[in-house]
């Protein structure tokens, strides 16, 4: 038995949710470029869950259902208030989502209908949790979700307590579309491994949030912003990046396990970064990002991934950098839950093998004889 480090290239599941073939990403066979331009996030969530785009009445039904479930139980809000000040926002989200199971009477109901309902509940409630936590830690009261608006709108509204500008809603919605699903990425795999034991959907999503948190995966968007903040200005880009490359340090937001010729989502976020810069009358973050891309691609051949330009976009939308990865989760919970439902439909325990490389032929040594 020979292990493949990081399971690179191993096909570990059959899935009909999203595909990456020859560098082209599709959700249910629809090119991400088309969805980014035309679809709303709610349409995409429906597509991932049901395998088809919704009719107008199906979409209205989903928006109504999301509105119905968006408020989180008072006990969960009370829990958020107890988290230590300065908690990591992804750790807080992971804990809060796990706690939501305790207040859902059907958390352990494994019927298909209950699982489909819980997928919608989780999708509805993650934005509320992230926004409520962001406010509570600043000493502000959470803002109750608004009925009848989309998730992008509602999230920005609950975060700021103000009606968001149309352009901000549009940008956020597109970002959510672009992050919704991505085949068997690490967090989705974690979710599928967890539920393949026939554990519940909350356990699967909690596992997924834990996996997304890491800087080699979703956590890279925050790490990109840390880097941009450290660089500070366009004039410092070259020396900073050159220093990192000379020291063989990783540049966050670059490289990808599957895409070797570029992540198709990055160009949409790059465009959004430029547009938001123009709107804000401040192009520096965009220009710094472009210069970083030129240097890293020029010297290492590495292309930006989905996390690179999302950092400047979210910052220009006024979002604190430690909410970037939670926002990724707000979107990706659509894909996680779609994969969880797909796993339940044709389940088999996921249990690979390890190549043993430890010592052999050892004997138990009594404690008094150990050196
Ligand atoms: C939503 C997402 O999860 S997108 C990915 C987000 N993660 C990041 O942006 C973090 C930075 N990028 C990385 O760490 C990697 O490119 C990953 C984790 C995305 C992919 O990792 P892997 O497929 O295992 O590639 P691996 O890390 O083996 O890289 C291959 C080579 O490219 C180099 N490399 C890869 N990414 C980078 C980078 N961002 N900066 C500098 N060098 C890099 C590696 O050092 C390695 O070089 P070597 O062969 O000389 O040792
Ligand atoms: O697929 C991956 O490995 C990571 C990624 O880009 C994503 O999850 O969006």
Question: What does this protein look like?
Answer:
Keywords: Acyltransferase, Transferase, Tricarboxylic acid cycle. Pathway: Carbohydrate metabolism; tricarboxylic acid cycle. This is Citrate synthase. The chain is 57% helix and 3% strand. The protein has 371 residues and is an all-alpha fold. It folds into two domains: 32-214 and 322-345, Citrate Synthase, domain 1, CATH 1.10.580.10; 220-316, Cytochrome P450-Terp, domain 2 (Cytochrome p450-Terp, domain 2, Orthogonal Bundle). A three-stranded antiparallel sheet has the order 1-2-3. Strand 2 and strand 3 (30-31) form a beta hairpin. Helix 5 packs across helix 6 and helix 13 (266-280) packs parallel to helix 15. The longest helix has 25 residues, at 112-136. Bound molecules: acetyl coenzyme *A and oxaloacetate ion. Residues 6, 216-218, 220, 250-257, 300, 302, 305-307 line the site of acetyl coenzyme *A.
Secondary-structure topology with pairs:
Elements: E1 18-21, E2 24-27, E3 30-31, H1 32-38, H2 41-50, H3 56-69, H4 74-82, H5 89-100, H6 112-136, H7 151-160, H8 166-179, H9 186-195, H10 201-212, H11 220-231, H12 237-246, H13 266-280, H14 284-300, H15 306-316, H16 324-345
Antiparallel strand pairs: 1-2, 2-3
Helix pairs in contact: 1-8, 2-16, 3-6, 5-6, 5-10, 6-7, 6-16, 7-8, 8-15, 8-16, 9-10, 9-16, 10-16, 11-15, 12-14, 13-14, 13-15
Acetyl coenzyme *A (ACO) is lined by residues 6, 216-218, 220, 250-257, 300, 302, 305-307.
